[in-house]
Amino acid sequence: MKLSLEKILYNSASNGTSLLHFECRSDISELLLETLTSLCKDVGAVLQNEGYYDYMTVNSYLKLFAGLSGSDVTLDSAVRTMQLDGFLYCKIKSLTPSQKYRVSLAREIIMDRDILFLQEPVLGTDRDSVQPMIQWIESCGDQGKKVITTSQSLKHVYMLPGRHFFVDEEHAEELPENIFSKQEQSGPYMAEKIPARMGDKILLFDPDEIDYIESMQGKNYLHVRQDRFQCSMTMDELCSKLKKFGFFRSHRSYIVNMQRVSEVMKWTKNSYSLRMKGGEEENIPLSKGRIEELKEYYGF
């Protein structure tokens, strides 16, 4: 993993990209931070569960770090950027987790480091916290600072501006690009990319990233690593485009990536399901009428 991260950091430096966001487990996030600090000097970090001086006010806490930083960034500037004016003289122990995270970000603004590591920046944040944080991350990129974030949620990773990756113990891979509005799309859908919506964004997924597709209450959803994304294509369109990539229409409401299937389960004479890899409870319905088609198609 260290070699993968080194390569990503090198490539991002060479092409001017400085905002990198990783979907990963919490233990992988810790390994990423460890790897980053071994590769780079003076890394600023905001962790999901930080210790605070709970009986200090926000103002006194930030003044403490302003006295240590030696940078030109003022406390007032950090407070404005993270919109902390409303509780500047409140004790830290009285703040919500979301507000505490903004205080930590203000601390790192004051410290003015060139490389920052943020753990779960979106998790549990309220609307008032998300907007200034995303704007600040974007401004860091404009200034040439490197911001690296980690999250267990693919949705949260895609909320942040920059490049997006999935990383585990063995490898790191870049995730599909974001298209920020329908107007930015050009031409017809390509078979190699499947579109899905997340808020005002349209994401483009490679077929092999999709675990299965589910139709529910008149809407179709792509399931990708524990998250789901609404897709505007019909089930028939999806089945037609994805069949050559190893997808199978197991039920009128399900299309399954057979590379993700570990077992065909027979519960009763008329009840079947496909068990997905990685979770005993992830069972996808298999219609009795499609059993023979499945046997013929896959030769078992």
From TrEMBL:
Keywords: DNA-binding. It comes from Anaerostipes caccae (strain DSM 14662 / CCUG 47493 / JCM 13470 / NCIMB 13811 / L1-92). Signal peptide: none annotated. GO terms for molecular function: DNA binding; phosphorelay response regulator activity. It holds the Pfam family LytTR. SUPFAM superfamilies: P-loop containing nucleoside triphosphate hydrolases. Residues 194-300 form the HTH LytTR-type domain. This is LytTr DNA-binding domain protein.
